[in-house]
Amino acid sequence: MIKTILFKGTLTGNGIVNFDSSAQKWVLRERFPAERDALKFDNVKIAKHSFYKVGETEEGKPVWERRLCISADCLRNAIFSADFPFQNTSILHHEELLVSVLATPAALLRGYMFAADGKTAIKRKSPLMITAAEQTSNGTTHFEVGSMSGAKRTKEDEDDAGDTSFHYEEKAGKMEYAFEGALDLAELQFISFSQFYDRLGMLPDHKDAFREKLAKALGSPVDDVRFLNKKGALIRTPEEGILLSAEQVAILVREFFTRLLSLGIRKSKGYAHIDSLQVKFVRNPIDDTLHDAGGWRTVKQPAEATPAASEIHVSYEEVPEQEALTARTRIEASQAATASVKKAKAAEKRKQAAEKKAAATAA
Question: CA 207 → CA 45, 92, 223, 238, distances in Å?
Answer without folding.
Answer: 47, 16, 11, 18
